[in-house]
Design a protein that fits this description.
There is one protein chain. Helix content is about 40%, strand content about 15%. By secondary structure, it is an alpha/beta fold. It has twelve helices and eleven strands. The strands form two sheets. It has a six-stranded mixed beta sheet with strand order 6-7-8-9-11-10, sandwiched between helices. Bound molecules: adenosine monophosphate. The site of adenosine monophosphate has 13 residues, from strand 10 and strand 11.
């Protein structure tokens, strides 16, 4: 953290990056760090330059306008919440003079940065940004806007502080942010209310979910279904969180049909699914991972592997619910 702060101090221009298809943690950590650095160093240029956006988090406002290649050359790049280079939203990140990576995903052995700070046990990258601020609070300035961004990522990536990575540190850092001042009524209303179409789709999706022999819950969200319910890709992908509450069903998977591929979102309790995701062009965390398959045949193969994994887990372990 000291090396990162010293490097930030050396540069006049800092560009912050994140992964594509951004979630609350990717948006919160990058906007949060930008707000802290802008408040602390008004003389520096602190930019957020990414190539895609999130409708779900549009209430936080946009990012900075695209820049020509030349702009990147004397900048420090900070990539947050992104384990591998291919997932970085803005491919121009490589043009930066120096690159720092801050992340909480399991690394795959490859590296895209000059300086890395990776803590897999952290519940979110936002928790790391909060820890960074806390570590240098005599030098850095925070605003309630920054606290709100960071708190948003901590809440969303920890499933509202439920997942196993949530530690005493998580709660202490969240408390520190609340002390700065956050309008939680507005934040939670923005995060956790649905449109009527999403509300109706949730009921439909639950009625269409399939349960395998050993208890893997899955749903295939076809393009036809997406069209029928007028769902954006983001709406369709959110379906995975509606499959999480069946007793004994420790793995749940959503398959979202795209034009050329099927996006796979894997979630679990107790059982590790990231290795399964690795075998299908993916990765992520032990209990929340993503992958991609290219045919229904491959989708069925993944499901069969998930079912076998769960059967084995249940045979060899006790205490699961
Ligand atoms: P998702 O279901 O896409 O939200 O993914 C769950 C978690 O796994 C997120 O933290 C993602 O950043 C991560 N993830 C998804 N796909 C990949 C991938 N292909 N490689 C590495 N990590 C991934």
């Amino acid at each position: 953290m000291r090396q990162i702060l010293d490097t930030i101090k050396e540069y006049k221009k800092i560009i912050i990056f994140r992964h594509f298809r951004p979630d609350g943690d990717a948006i919160g950590s990058t906007k949060g760090l930008q707000a802290i650095l802008r408040a602390t160093y008004p003389e520096k240029e602190i930019m957020l330059l990414n190539a895609d956006y999130s409708d779900y988090l549009a209430f936080f406002g946009g990012e900075d306008a695209p820049q020509e290649d030349e702009y990147y050359k004397d900048a420090l790049g900070i990539v947050i919440d992104t384990s591998v280079a291919k997932r970085i939203s803005n491919k121009k990140f490589e043009l930066c003079e120096k690159i720092i990576k801050i992340d909480h995903h399991i690394p795959d052995g490859s590296s895209y940065a000059d300086l890395e700070w990776i803590e897999e046990h952290r519940s979110s990258s936002c928790e790391m940004i909060a820890a960074f601020y806390e570590c240098f609070r005599d030098e850095l300035k925070i605003t309630s806007e920054a606290a709100t961004y960071i708190y948003c990522g901590m809440v969303t990536d920890s499933g509202r502080f439920r997942y196993r990575e949530v530690s005493g540190d998580t709660m202490r850092l969240a408390g520190m942010l609340l002390d700065v001042g956050i309008d939680t009524d507005s934040l939670y209303s923005n995060l956790y209310t649905d449109s009527i179409k999403a509300f109706k789709f949730e009921a439909y999706a639950k009625s269409k979910a399939v349960i395998s022999e050993n208890g893997v819950v899955s749903i295939f969200v076809s393009k036809r279904m997406q069209k029928k319910f007028k769902l954006s890709k983001e709406d369709a992908s959110a379906v995975v969180s509606h499959l999480d509450s069946l007793r004994g069903c420790l793995i749940w998977i959503a398959f979202i049909e795209g034009d050329d591929e099927i996006r796979v979102r894997l979630r679990s309790r107790f059982v590790t699914v990231s290795e399964l995701a690795n075998r299908y062009n993916g990765g992520g965390h032990a209990c929340a991972a993503g992958a991609t398959v290219y045919s229904k045949k491959e989708m069925k193969a993944l499901l069969a592997e998930a079912d076998e994994l769960l059967g084995k887990y249940k045979n060899e372990n006790e205490g699961w619910i």
